[in-house]
């Protein structure tokens, strides 16, 4: 396999793996935002504060989870106020995401995983193409 073809195969394979990761993260966020798993809890905010992030600030509110047998606190990135109760669903990485219920949010969160999925499919197709191209000269040399 020529060195340039090997680099192309490795590069496209790496892009495919990154695409799979991005698609999995997008699907996970969609499931949490729409509460498709059914794990949403109600959080009554006890405190809200601003946090500096790159490019601006975000509001983070936290408070006790309502209607549970054991006490736990949930932190939600949400522009709320003290005393407000919000439904939030846990994400895979331990944070909580406010549940979206309006039609536009449903449409957006259903379509969010589609873009990285298309990119992953494209990178996978390029990986297969380059791998086949790299194998063709070797097969032609063996036949002669």
Task: Furnish the topology, listing elements before pairings.
Blueprint: H1 3-34, E1 41-44, E2 47-53, E3 56-64, E4 73-77, E5 85-90, E6 96-98, H2 103-111, H3 114-143
Antiparallel strand pairs: 1-5, 2-3, 3-4, 5-6
Give me some keywords for this one.
144 residues; alpha+beta; three-stranded antiparallel β-sheet; 6 strands
CA-atom Rg in angstroms: 23 Å
Termini separation = 17 Å
What's the count of strands? 6
Number of helices: 3
| Succession of helices and strands | HEEEEEEHH
Instruction: List the uncertain runs.
Output: none
- Helix proportion range: 40-55%
User: DSSP strand (E) fraction?
Assistant: 15-25%
> Which structural class do you get from the secondary structure elements?
alpha+beta
Oligomer: single chain
The residue-averaged pLDDT reads 86
Strand order of the largest sheet: 1-5-6
The overall number of domains is 2
Sheet having the most strands: 3 strands, antiparallel
Any overview of this molecule?
The protein is α+β, with helices and mostly antiparallel strands and 144 residues long. It has two domains: 1-37 and 100-144; 41-98. The chain is built from three helices and six strands, in the order H-E-E-E-E-E-E-H-H. The chain has helices at 3-34, 103-111, 114-143; strands at 41-44, 47-53, 56-64, 73-77, 85-90, 96-98. Strand 3 and strand 4 (73-77) form a beta hairpin. Helix 1 (3-34) runs antiparallel to helix 2 and helix 1 packs antiparallel against helix 3. It starts with a helix and ends with a helix. The model has no long low-confidence stretch (mean pLDDT 86).
């Amino acid at each position: 396999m020529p060195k340039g073809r090997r680099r192309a195969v490795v590069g496209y394979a790496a892009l495919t793996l990154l695409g799979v990761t991005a698609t999995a993260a997008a699907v996970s966020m969609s499931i949490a935002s729409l509460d498709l798993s059914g794990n949403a809890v109600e959080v009554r905010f006890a405190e809200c504060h601003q946090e500096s992030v790159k490019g601006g600030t975000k509001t983070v509110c936290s408070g006790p989870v309502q209607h549970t047998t054991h006490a736990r606190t949930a932190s939600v990135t949400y522009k709320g106020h003290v005393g407000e109760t919000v439904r939030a669903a846990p994400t895979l990485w331990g944070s909580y995401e406010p549940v979206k219920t309006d039609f536009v949010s449903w449409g957006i969160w259903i379509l969010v995983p589609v873009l990285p999925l298309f990119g992953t499919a494209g990178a996978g197709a390029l990986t297969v193409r380059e791998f086949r191209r790299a194998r063709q000269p070797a097969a032609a040399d063996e036949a002669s």
